[in-house]
Amino acid sequence: MRILYIAASDPYASQRAQTLLDALLVAASFGAQVSLLFQGHGLLQLLPDQEAALIDRRSLSAQLDALPLFDVEAIYADRADAQRLHIDASSSRVDVQWLEPEAIASLIAAHDQVIRL
């Protein structure tokens, strides 16, 4: 089963981003083929040097860094959303493949399940 997780939530506005990464890592640890797509405010998770402790939150950095350990290598990001949010694609803390909207539609269609938070 191929599962696409779409990270679309601000990393620290709620627990949604944390919940998505937790679910993704659990699925990957049980052998599911998982992919991860960052869209919208979820792209903020890719920015380096996040200081979550300043707002009394746990950083998502360790989970993002652990993705390769769980064989999560299919990591994508929405180039159009990055441009809209003025996020520099070269500053990503995670190695991602940047996709245009047409490619994102194909990516979604290629998966059996899609989970968006």
Automatic annotation (TrEMBL):
Q: The organism sits in which domain of life?
A: Bacteria
Transmembrane regions:
none
Name the family the entry cites: Belongs to the DsrF/TusC family.
Instruction: Tell me the protein's name.
Output: DsrE family protein
